[in-house]
Amino acid sequence: MAITLYDASVRTFLQILPAVAGYLEKARAHAVEAGRNPEDLVEARLCDDQWPLRSQVIATVHHARGAIAGVKAGVFRPPLWDAKLDYAGLQKEVADAIAELSALTPDEVNALEDKDLVFELGPRQMPFRGGDFLLSFSLPNFYFHATTGYDVLRAQGAPLGKRDFMGAPRIKA
């Protein structure tokens, strides 16, 4: 069985991003139920030297929607860290990413496999082929930030479990 770039990247993003939307909503509802303001979760973090939930969600979206756009454009840069995003804004970012990725076709994404791009981090530049970038850089980052966002909310008392992270597996119909 051959696995395409679309299958390995976009279909994976579209499995986990709805789970991110789900755990964000579950944590919001839990906070409200517990008499907490969900906005207090936006800057919550696991430890002092780690990014807050806000940045984890922004990075998760950026390594999905932004990675595909970066390969198309030939350049990928870190996201804009918009500190003004509130909890609803984070939820909207995830929903928008799901919609944008859902509109992509397999042919459109598979055509990016050999496209050159550069990851720019300040003056540092790292050259990639599109497929290698998505599979060896963006997917690991995507999982890291999606997992860390989950962990932040779990540490804040949200009643989350493994199924809340996994999303809908691609079971045989």
Description:
Helix content is 58%, strand content 8%. It has 173 residues and is mostly helical. The protein has one domain (5-166): dinb family like domain (Four Helix Bundle (Hemerythrin (Met), subunit A)). A three-stranded mixed sheet has the order 1-2-3. Helix 2 (10-33) packs antiparallel against helix 3 (53-73) and helix 2 runs parallel beside helix 6 (130-155).
Blueprint of the fold:
Layout: H1 5-8, H2 10-33, H3 53-73, E1 75-76, H4 87-102, H5 106-110, E2 116-121, E3 124-129, H6 130-155, H7 162-166
Parallel strand pairs: 1-2
Antiparallel strand pairs: 2-3
Helix pairs in contact: 2-3, 2-4, 2-6, 3-4, 3-6
- Domain tally: 1
- Report how far the terminal alpha carbons are from each other: 17 Å
Largest sheet, spatial ordering of strands = 1-2-3
Structural class: mainly alpha
Shape type:
globular
Second rung of CATH, namely the architecture: Up-down Bundle
Indicate the mean pLDDT. Answer: 95
Order of helix and strand elements from N to C terminus: HHHEHHEEHH
> What is the number of beta strands?
3
Q: Count the DSSP helices.
A: 7
Strand content: 5-15%
> What is the CATH topology classification name?
Four Helix Bundle (Hemerythrin (Met), subunit A)
